[in-house]
Records
---
Amino acid sequence: MTQLGLQRTPARRIQVPRPTRPRGDGRVALFFIAPVLLGFAIFYLYPTIRGFWWSFTDYSLLADPEFVGIDNYVAVLGDSEFWNSMWVTLCYVVLNVGSQTLIALLLAALMHRLTRSVVLRTTLLLPWLVPNVTVGLVWLWLLDTNLGFVNRTLDTMGLDKIGFFTNPMLAIPTISFINTWAFVGYTALLFYAGMLQIPQDTYEAAAIDGAGELRTFFRITLPLLKPILALVLVVSLIGSFQIFDTVAVTTKGGPVNASRVIYYYIYQQAFTYFHMGYAATMAILLVLILGVLTFIQLRLLRASESQLA
Amino acid sequence: MRRNTALRIAGIATAGIVLAATAGCSTQGGDGGAVTLDYWLWDDAQLPAYQQCADDFTKANPDITIKISQYGWGEYWTNLATQIAAGSAPDVWVDQPSYYPQFVADKQIEDLQPYIDEDPSAVDFDAYVPGIADVYKIDDARYGLPKDWDTIGLVINKQDAADAGIDDATLQDLTWNPDDGGTFEQVIAKLTVDKSGKHGDEAGFDKNDVAVYGFLPEWADGSQGQNLWGNLAYSNGFTYSDVNPFGTSFHYDSPKLAETIDWIASLADKGYAPSFDTQSTLSRLEVLQSGTGAMTSMGSFNQLMFKDTASDYVFAPLPTGPEGRKSAINGLSDAMYAGGKHKDHAWEWIKYLASSDCQSVVGATGVIFPANADASQASVDARAKLGLDASVFLSYAQEPDGTFLIPITYHGAEMSQIVQDAIQSVALGTSDSQSALSDANAKVNALFE
């Protein structure tokens, strides 16, 4: 009993100064956070709450919103265009995130194991520095069927022209490829930074044990990179779901509805058809879907556990 | 204490910068006696002409300044809707027949009839091209004063026509029907040339290896087909709806339309036009100017694009169909924002824009055909000086029922997507025209239930 009591006292003593310190820090911290918090409240929280309210209304943007209960939700779930655009978006995400992650991993591993040239790293980042709309326009012109460089080259080689943006089967793969091209350097750099964190001695040990490059990659690099991999996957998945600009610049959702991704459909409903309430409903559903996906992904990858610890 | 003060100063300074930026980025109109009116338009080619009108107007009315903003067609309507939602819409904007009914339904544009009643001499309706003022009339209300009008014609590469041995008289009097395409299809076939130099009507023509397409169709043409299919279908006896404006029962399932769409799609099958999935993403006029197309249809508002290459192109009227020669006619207007703060001043400006004074200034540039008939003639003359023959666009008006009004409806934007998707699916070959258009028609009619 006394022993226990004695043990407790020092513990208490350590805790004594705490109440004063954190309080002071908290106030200062709040002060520093305030501008961001204010921005968050005005530009994120308030619009989200408003959007949530609009999802229960019939709102044309021009006249006042009118409460309609869950009518919008019922209509969205029965809207074949909504499900089509979810499917199109999913195809895009799988193609884009898949190719981007694989190529970026390969590039990062090459940079890590072969060369550490700064020039090379900077060059890889270049497409990422170009604004998305410019990227879209450049590829639109390069891939144009009549006047584009790529099709002209195919034509002079005696091959058939390819309607990259105008063939419904190719529109989404083309857009995925464009964005992979634009973002792969950035993703590779994130992976590369993650690889630099892996202690060099693990590689030395592997080399002494006679492991080849492939084995080292799968047994050491990949497992130790898992937290970064998980983070990058979650961020690119969410980013990829938000594909809008490239579609808006190149195909505008066409041909017919082959590349009408969910963000473009939401935009059309809100600003072309003036169905703000309906658009808000789809946005809320998208938030729910993305939340669930992120949760599952983090769970599957157990992202918080690093094998380095 | 000291640190807190420093922090506070830093905080205040940050807030100050943010506020200054906010104030600097927003625009403020003048107050007091002088009024600044915001005026929006989308065509950058027309901006200088209307700036001239604004300057002349301010000279006559020194207390009213006009601030013109120009946004591209792509952003124009979205920007306008968001500005209206934010309560800061322009006082006057250029309006278009497919968009204005939505603004009327949401009570965002002012009925101008009361202003006209109070000021009967303000507008001379007899001076306008007939029918063009009524586009913006709903019952006794008037939601805009006429600004300009346009029709559709054909533009043909002169050298290609000469190489194919087609004379000008043939081009100026083409015929068309949905069965064999008439002389229109014959000319298109002759204008098409494959890589080995064989024309589309010659034996041994390779439709899979075409160098110059005879015709460039427009497949992204909404629910109106203003640029081609609407005109051909109309000349084939098709009508869009029970009544126009403001029809509520539509006829997109008509076989007259289906056979028209089938004919246009057949051009690609024969190699006379690029197939839908290999067409350029650039505009048809750009493809035409690049030399890979020999002929296309175009609106009168685009003719000035050819001012530097006028001698290389021929302009011709649309072909005569089974029911005659028909062109869609469209007209823009100036609308007044119902929530504006200076409506009386805005009325003065709209009145001036609709007057022959302003319209002749615009007409003299040749950029568009003003609603005022005399100013229209001035525009035709201005184009003639540049070597551009604009008479084809006026030719329809000389025939009885030579023009038809493009459909003016509620739900215009949704209809546009539904019908365009159906027509594109025919062009892609993923569905047959009759069933695709019948489905689309059911969806369109459901919007009005």
Note: Chain B has two domains: 35-148+331-385, 152-330+395-447.
---
Amino acid sequence: MLRLVHLYADLMNLYGDRGNIIALQRRCDWRGIALEVQDLTLGENLEPSTVDILFFGGGQDVEQETVSRDLARGVGRAIQEAVEDGAALLSVCGGYQLLGRFFRTTEGVEIPGVGLFDAHTVAGDRRMVGDVIVEADLGQKPSTLVGFENHSGQTFLGPGAHPLGRVQIGHGNNGVDRTEGVRYRNAVGTYLHGPLLPKNPALADWIIESALGRRDGLETPLAALDDRVELEANTAQARRIRQAGPRRASIR
Amino acid sequence: MNPRLSAAIAAGRVASRLTRALRRGGGTVLPGHVAARIDTQALSTLSSRLPQGSVLISGTNGKTTTARMLAQIAHRAGLRPVHNRAGANLPAGILSALLDGCSLMGQPHGDLGIFEVDEAHVPAAVAAIRPRVLVLTNLFRDQLDRYGEVDFVARAWQRAAANLPLPAKLVVNIDDPTLAYLSESRLGPATTFGISECSFGHEGLPHEADHRLCPRCRSRLTYSSSNYGHLGLYVCSGCGWRRPVPDVAPTEIAMDGEHGSDFNLNSDGPIFPTHIPLNGLHNVYNAVAASAAALALDIDPQYIVQGLAEAQGAFGRDEVVQVGDGSLKLVLVKNPVGFNQALRSLGAEDLTLVAINDLFADGTDVSWLWDVDFELLGNRRIVCTGLRAHDMSVRLKYASVDNRTTEPSLENALSLALDAARSGARVAAFCTYTATLEIRHLLQQRGLVAPFWEN
């Protein structure tokens, strides 16, 4: 049995992030793998040895401040221990930023992060919103991730950090160096927010596989599923974006 | 005589006639654009000439229906409202409504402005129009590709409330903690409304709820009851701040599906039994919002009761079109809270169309579909259509809604639905904004509905 902990599920779930949990649940379910999902919220503790998958979604600045204080109580350290021990983790947008080394506000104040990823984020003055296509590197098989981003923070990776992939269309980490996200051991950070996994089943399965490998110590490939509906949505949207270019809403 | 204003009005008239003659739409926006290019003060000048002043209505959900209810009430009270009733709620749309029937000298055709306003444009509209009453219905996650985050709108409304002329009344839904806090922090008068009865509430909060933290101290809010989204009875676990008692509240609410709802309207004085012919708790909220606004305008309650009894949904808001022996119901969906509310009030329809577009007016990000509880559809027959038909199909696959077909062309999907309706089926069509316009346009071509600007 696998155990997934949804970090601050009630506060960090702004853009349909629960789609990722639903995708992991169903894809385990279809293969007969038991997956237990537990929400963790403010004031609760995380026991690193009992968790196989961690999910950390995006939130608003106000919620993010509250969560950042709560992480400093010890939950941040527990996340780090779990990942060092091989647990799989997917963090999105605000969750990704909080797991970096620090976040520098527009006033120049550095708010410390968990430090799991060798990355830091700088508050930006323009919001990066729109469709994204990323060529992801998940070890063996390259795959095209299609999603949507909406962030003003610019994240820069340290020299030792490995990006999740390269941006083909969109902004990615910072709109400057074409990198998108980060990958460290079995942990991933990304700006592709909301329901990333349903339409990108290769990444969903990479997470499940990593978690199983750590739990059983085996590298058994997962049973294949019929992903035609998912891949059709992935390629249909990628085709639209490539033809028409990414649409960016005019904001502020 | 203001020659610049008269020129702007004349140009707006030409634009209006041209759009209608060319069948490019109802002229609900272009005249305003044209007139504002000639006289940038036109909106401010024309609205200041309304003898009864203006009411502005904003909020994520319910602004169009609330504005229509208030217009009907005002009409019953003998007023002549100037109203952007087709829902064109940017400044150009409001100005177009003022230009409609306006004399060349700049006298609007009516005495009371009733204008719904896009959430992000409330500060600008307050500055230009200086309303007598500002109504705020609720604030949910919506169009985050435009706003970035929900708090962006909350901050815009704080600015607007601060700049509201002091004697003007703020009318807010205090079941929404953000709005309750907003009304408490304003100096001027406020009329609050809410639903205190718990009989339709749920324990705790649904997953799609926003604003879980206290606007005062940032501690967690706990809900003894929530009506939908985060609207409900809350108390802060930190500072003890709790939902205030509303000035206007419905009691003894009885909902009877498509027959509408009954409730008693309670304010300071006597109790008024009220009926609205629209279904769902969200429409009770809309009716109470319209009532509170009418009371803020000192309209006699008897006209409120009369006006609400004649309330009609706006185009595409539960609009039922008769087709042969069957019917097609159009339900506009824009955000998770509204969509979940619509799914919960779904009847025994035989076929359900889900039409998802992702143009600017719909929101270019369809992530929010994953906050909608499509699991409620069970084994109903579904057709996924629109520009994001494939994404919708993935969402339904993961909700175990397996009796579904995917037909990206709206025209083909609608033909399927109309064929079913002709042989007696009842069809529900959940459509995003531009999908609603497109489907109504197709229905209009087939002679099944009137153009939306005549609705």
Note: Helices of chain A lie at 18-29, 61-84, 94-98, 196-199, 201-216, 228-244.
